[in-house]
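ZP: hey, is the zinc ion complex queued? I don't see it on the tracker
AM: it wasn't, my bad. submitting now with these inputs:
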Amino acid sequence: MLKFDITRAQTRFLDPFKKFETSTLVIETRKDPLSGDQARVLSFRARPLGPIDHQAYIERSQERPCPFCPENIERMTTRYLPQELPEGRLSQGGATLFPNAFPYEAMNAVLVLCREHYLRPSQFTPDMLANALSLASLAFKRLAKGQNYASVNWNYLMPAGAGLVHPHFQLAAGKAPTRFQAALRGHARAHARAQEGADIAADYIQAERQAGERWLGRLGPAAWLTPFAPRAIFDVMALIPGDKGLLDLKPAQIAKLAEGISRVLGFFEAEGVGAFNMALHTQLKPGAGLPCMLRLVSRVDIPPMGVDEINYFEKLHDEMITFLPPEELAQRLRPHWAG
Ligand SMILES: [Zn+2]
């Protein structure tokens, strides 16, 4: 059985906003059985985020040539060695892939999604995202031979770590998993040992569908939900059961996954989430033990002071604090999910 563990602590103080009457607050600490992530869910209200405004980033990006724009990409981006990829770069349906000039993994590529220099979150169409995921899958097949674990990652705009405005993914594949992937794999293996080979992703999906509070729905190969122990204020997850990875997905399944991403991005824009990160974690071979998971997390500034949602707690304690319970996030997302 998967354990969705919550411990609650109570704290009290005399509240200046209630004529110094006693305020009692409950702090939840949650542990996610899929990843081992620990998160604190608090119960205070937050102001809504304002509408997204990227004007300053767009203007700054126009001060120098953009290497990912169609007129520059040929002469300003890297190419593969001829013995690795004779054509130098991979292109498909408006997307282009080439080596990352600032690599941090054995196989590390940049995938420019489109010819457009800037798109709002809601402008990433399912077709464009499906094309990018399918190109990522092709790139792993051709360029990540001998690697075991991979990810398709996205920093959307500067507060999320993007160096350029022009929409691009980063692909990474290596022999060893990243720390988070190792945690996922470790929990999957422990679950399989304890439950006679059971698939942790399938069991997690079943438990969450039954609980219902964080459930969004099944869409093609993936179940979509808000994670029990979130890694951000807005954190949405897709989970693919059955020892599958990105490379096992057929075009129609990739299209469904892309549709899910596009729905979440539409919701992000409506909520004022103007910066986000995405990671799709995937094994490259069946049996490598890594459940296939996609996460989309906000990177917002909290009004009115523009406070970064990441602080010492995430950076130095490896825990997240959120004041938007995932159950409430799911409730707010469902109308967008239904379309
Ligand atoms: Zn550009």
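AM: back. The CA atoms of residues 198 and 282 lie 19 Å apart.
ZP: great, adding it to the tracker
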